[in-house]
Amino acid sequence: MTKSLLEMNDLHVTFSTRRGLVEAVRGVTLSLGEGEMLGLVGESGSGKSVTGFAITRLLDAAGRVAAGNIRFRGQDITKISAGDFRHLHGAAMAMIFQNPRAALNPIRAVGDQIADAITAHKRMPRDEARAQALGLLRAVQIRDPEKRMAAYPHELSGGMCQRVMIAMAISCNPALLIADEPTTGLDVTTQKVVMDLLTGIAAERGMATILITHDLGLAARYCRRVVVMEQGRLVEEAEPLRLFRAPKHAYTKRLVAASPTASSRIEDLVPEEDRGREISVLAAPRPARAPGTPPLLEVQKIVKRFDQGAAAVADCSMTSSAGESVGLVGESGSGKSTTSRIICRLIDPSEGEIAFEGQSIGHIPARDFHRSPFRKDIQIVFQDPNDSLNPRFTAFDCIAHPLLRLSGMRPGDVLRQRVEECAQRVGLGLDLLTRFPHQLSGGQKARVGIARAIACRPRLLVLDEPTAALDVSVQAVVLQLLDRLRREDDLAFLFVSHDLNVVRMMCDRTIVLQSGRIVEQGESRAMFDNPKTAYTRELVDAVPHIEPELAAMAT
Amino acid sequence: MPAVGATLTRAGKRFLSSLPALFGVLVFTFLLMRVLPGDPAVFFASGPNAGKEEIEVIRKQMGLNKPVPEQLMLYLYDVGRGNLGRSMMTGQMVTKDLRERLPASLELTFTALLIALVTAVPLGVLAALRPGSIIDHGVRFFCALGVCVPTFVSGLLLIYVFYYLLGLAPDPTGRVDIFASLPPRQTGFLLIDFLLAGDVDGWWAAFRQLILPALTMALFVVAPLARITRASMLVSLGSDFVRTARSVGLPWWRIVVTYALRNAILPVITIAGIVFSTMLGANVLVEKVFSWPGVASYALDALLSSDYAPVQGFVLLMATVFVIVNLLVDILYGIADPRVTIG
Amino acid sequence: MTSATLRHAGWILRGNPLTAVAATGVVLLTLIAMFGPWIVPYDPIVSNVSQALMPPSAAHIAGTDQLGRDVFSRLIVAARLDLVIAISAVGISFAIGAVIGAICGYTGGKLDRGVGRFVDVVMAFPLFVLAMAMVAALGNRVENIVIATAIINLPFYIRFARAEVNVRRNVGWVEAARACGDSHLSVVLRFLLPNVLPAMAVQISLNLGWAILNAAGLSFIGLGVKPPTPEWGIMVAEGARFISTGKWWLVAFPGLALMLTVLCFNLLGDGVRDILDPRMRT
Known about the structure:
The complex is a heterotrimer. By secondary structure, chain A is α/β, with parallel strands linked by helices. Chain A is built from 20 helices and 20 strands. Chain A has helices at residues 48-55, 82-88, 100-103, 110-119, 126-139, 145-148, 158-170, 188-205, 216-222, 240-245, 250-258, 336-343, 395-406, 413-425, 442-454, 472-489, 500-506, 524-529, 534-542, 546-554; strands at residues 4-17, 20-33, 37-41, 63-72, 75-76, 93-96, 176-180, 208-213, 225-230, 233-238, 297-305, 311-320, 325-329, 351-356, 359-360, 378-381, 460-464, 492-497, 509-514, 517-523. In chain A, the strands form four sheets. Chain A has a six-stranded mixed β-sheet with strand order 6-7-8-3-9-10, with helices on both faces. A six-stranded mixed β-sheet of chain A has the order 16-17-18-13-19-20, with helices on both faces. In chain A, helix 13 (395-406) crosses helix 14 and helix 14 (413-425) packs across helix 15 (442-454). Chain B is mainly alpha-helical. Chain C is mainly α. Chain C contains ten helices and no strands. Chain C has helices at residues 2-15, 17-39, 71-107, 109-123, 127-138, 142-168, 172-179, 184-220, 232-240, 249-276. The longest helix of chain C is centred in the N-terminal third of the chain and has 37 residues, at 71-107. Chain C starts with a helix and ends in a 6-residue tail after the last helix. Classes of the chains: A alpha/beta, B mainly alpha, C mainly alpha. Chains B and C meet through helix 1, helix 7, helix 11, helix 12 and helix 13 of B and helix 4, helix 5, helix 8, helix 9 and helix 10 of C.
């Protein structure tokens, strides 16, 4: 191993909150060699980002290093003064942040921001700093760098902003680069480009890098060594290959199992010893449909134009039969959310026809659809569990709401029984029913949202990125739950997602959308294994597939 | 600045979109004239004893016998030609009266705004830099109190302290001492006119007259300005881009000034426009307390003696000033924030 | 639910003594407004010229005015008028403004633009001047002060409700309510408005203070309330003539009454937000 650049010894970080001191990092010991690339993986609340911010001393005012030390080139940097630390910032260690657009000053040209970073450590005329900034923009492969020097962050895409951020971070050639979820929120294709660039530059300039991420696959793809954190502790440290093949710690096992890969199956997401009742129902043989029955859902040539500009959805047609699970994938701006809301009859299409069980429902304005008898047949589960529950409703009220509105039930024992039954079906403890959304965890909120959607026994469930905001271990459980509910109720799914691995697992058929148009559709596994169009291939390639990489590494 | 063109376009659009509002003001003032108690023709007649015929003649002359829409058109035509009618009190054209008195009001308002801004912004920044400190609590306490004291009370109390008790301030009536000689009128702003005339004593006298009313008005608006400065500075200091600036090792002053403050000042600019509008309203009270010969006290006197043409003119003038100030705010904002020039 | 709310309110009040003080102040003020005329030591209207312009003393704790009336008694009796004006004006503009604003914010489109124009027109005036002009136009009476104050408050409520509803109209739980079978109207009235209320409550409390200042300002310049009716603004106006000769109590005490009242409402506003925001509840 190369000479050690950074050493952490029994690091503890605490935050003072309204409820007293909270320990976010509880004794992390870790070392990093010069030029090494380390992956720091964990779910939310694992303390991975806090560790990164503790190293660079960028913790919130409420947080502080309570015990332990951090040695950077042999010097304990938890002890040095703020003034001295400023000379390390940027010059010796730099950070790359999540949400690049917010991380840049919105009212200063990006060229000036990079030049600021340079002149913070080197005295030089402004012109020279700007010339160096231009060079850095070239290094991060921004097209047309001369023009971009004067651009403001809002004029650049998220991926471009992240490149600018990388340019700032490397401007003074720091020895250590800490990238905190650098590609979260970026499209999968952009994610690959940015990560390739980042690792390329780090290797070229010999910068040690810590990649902080929730995505085990991403860390495995780019790092030689991966460290897994859980609840402020370091639970396992290994090479990616070993970590995937033979995880030792129970938590790592769960995490590895829960991370969907190209070959995972729903049943595998939760390790056997953790499985409860969840998977008890096996696929009941689907009753053969009588020939001539109309498909459950038939969408013909729908188009959606918003006030101005190009159509968000153009000429989209699809069908779905009862009990079938159809995936809808695409990057941001592909129109997948709009399409799902049109089908759910929350918004009106500009053109086209929608039929449900052979009856046209496209002509009923979304404004009046709440009175349609089909309202309870088509339900939806929303993306962000945090904002999909009315903050003034308890979990009970949320689940009871559609029953009162659509099933004509009245408050009383019958309703209570029905709500409790729904809660049980989604594995929500009955004691949680009296809680308000802010008193529930993300996974619990997701369960409430699902319980509400299935309360009226719909026929078609639209799922709009139902697990995008959840940690992978929670996602695994929720996906299993959804799959079980589908089989139990012979429910059809329209599963909207950007995560190809999830869609591959969950859906019989998949439709790929790009800029509002369908580019390809077919049976999920076959299509992803052998994409017919360039765009689908690009999407598939961009997903961090672990197995081929691991195989390559092993040989 | 490459964005100047875009900013001007935006300001132009904004101006066009404020025209309907100005038109609404016109219609409102017209209705005001019609709804107000009393027959305007009676006022314009020779005197309270004017005969019925005479009033009828005047009604015809003024077009009051015509249908209301036509009267509105006539009124708009008059306003378009700059004719706002004649004041009963002064016997002069309202436009002339307003033109004479407007500089006094503007001088007072602008001075007050200047005082308020140079006090409020540093206070807000200081408070935000040390949240929870004594300065912070002091500023917040001051803000809480500042919005609670009515202008007319603080003005009177200032008079009591600085004129009656301490004798520091001159007699609180008017813009200059009645015995002092006025400088030749050039801008109408006494502070500027005295300077142009090279009269230092006169300038000092005018300044002493101005300072109490200006302080009164400033006190009223320091609180909202300081509060918004503090709040937006806190947001700015806690933002991701300030953390980025720290992560690359920028010097402290650069982080505070170039990164945090320049972003934090944007909402302050917007609020300053609103504050200016409230100051135009507060003018009525302050001018009354200090017998300040501005447009507001003129309009108030007219209102209380049922002389409505000046009131109409005053309301129109205020709306126009407000629209202009909003345009200025827009242009300033456009220069300060590159994002708004898009779209 | 209600007991939980009460418990939460108690918790907030303990943690925030200022709010408790402000709430006590408002309760006290309300009691004074209700029972003021029966508890005052002197008649607030009848003059007693032999006692004119007496500084504060044991007999007259806030002194007497130019007609020898007890300033303290007048202050107490005036509370009712000032509060009634402010509360009714704010009540009217809240009820109308919140509904209009919420509907505009939710539907958008032509209605929103039209109402937006109206709001722009109203706000193109310096609002105090507008109130002045309206009282003059409608007639110099107390009811018209209420109407004028309500109208100048209206645009704020419309804008506020509009903005608050607008940011929430595409939020998940609103779409979920639609999927659960609620009509647009029901979503606005049963979902959005209750969620906007905490923020509005703060606005109401702050506006009450502002409305009191406005009404006092109007009567200070001689509109609305007529002497000898005791009202804080008019008392200041009457005292203004004597300030240059050092009769400070005529101005200071009504000023203090105004200040404390507005302060109580403002502090209460901040406290109310904490109580009504369920995210603060744990």
